[in-house]
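Retro notes (design track)

What went well: tokenization of the new backbones is finally stable.
What didn't: we kept losing track of which sequence belonged to which structure.
Fix going forward: every design gets posted as structure first, then sequence, in one message. First example under the new rule, 260 residues:
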């Protein structure tokens, strides 16, 4: 983990309400960053209302260029301010943080992403898909919200709520059909809680290894504030609260307790 001042290389809208922020941060990249990890960012000189850093998912890392691609969903004044940064601006960045995905020796991987959760999944695809038998399944509210599909390293199937792009329905419908046809060695997923709950219910009973990246509000990113604590299930079956920012955000699916 490192604190650095990163230079903004560019900001582009890639979908409705989602921006790609490109940062030149060679010092941070020199440490290595894994798919599923994140960074915490704040604007220098931010006022009291923006005191806390914003956790941002990494969509791509290009060490040879010293550039990180971050996907930001505009949900409040802090994220709006980040998306309003201009090339040449500097941002305070802390990272890489958290525990990311681990593909191990899996040769057939299913990647599942929903909404802004597509960003870390796309990073995982670029890292793990080459040389393996993989498929991806993305779910969006509509065509205007879709991103991360072009130039993907493996086939991508898409669902939208209104059927404006891909199939109409839930991304879990496509995943279920693919599992029935040929189960994968591993499922990696990130997205809204209802989607992750369904992925868990598809994978765990079939004993398919599955890793879920949880989307939680993370105030400090260091495990000190406990705001992001979530209930998990230990190996002995007992419940325990763990911190998403340091123990996760990626957890084995069988350990996550979505229903309390």
């Amino acid at each position: 983990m490192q604190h650095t001042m990163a230079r903004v290389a560019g900001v582009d809208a890639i979908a409705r309400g989602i921006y790609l922020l490109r940062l030149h941060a060679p010092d941070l990249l020199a440490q290595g960053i894994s798919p599923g990890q994140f960074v915490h960012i704040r604007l220098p000189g931010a006022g009291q209302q923006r005191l806390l850093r914003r956790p941002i998912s990494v969509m791509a890392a290009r060490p040879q260029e010293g550039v990180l691609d971050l996907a930001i969903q505009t949900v409040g004044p802090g994220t709006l301010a980040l998306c309003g940064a201009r090339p040449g601006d500097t941002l305070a960045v802390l990272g890489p943080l958290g525990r990311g995905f681990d593909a191990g020796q899996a040769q057939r991987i299913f990647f599942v992403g929903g909404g802004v959760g597509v960003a870390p999944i796309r990073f995982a695809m670029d890292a793990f898909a080459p040389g393996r038998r993989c498929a991806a399944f993305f779910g969006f509210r509509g065509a205007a919200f879709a991103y991360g599909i072009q130039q993907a390293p493996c086939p991508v199937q898409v669902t939208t709520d209104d059927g404006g792009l891909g199939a109409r329905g839930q991304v879990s419908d496509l995943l279920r059909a693919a599992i029935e046809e040929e189960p994968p060695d591993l499922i990696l997923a990130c997205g809204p809680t209802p989607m992750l709950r369904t992925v868990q219910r598809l994978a765990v009973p079939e004993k398919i290894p599955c890793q879920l990246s949880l989307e939680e509000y993370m105030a400090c990113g260091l495990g000190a504030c406990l705001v992001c604590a979530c209930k998990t299930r230990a190996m002995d079956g007992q419940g325990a609260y763990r911190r998403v920012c340091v123990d996760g955000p990626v957890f084995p699916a069988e350990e996550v307790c979505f229903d309390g």
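Added context from the reviewer: The chain has a mean pLDDT of 88.
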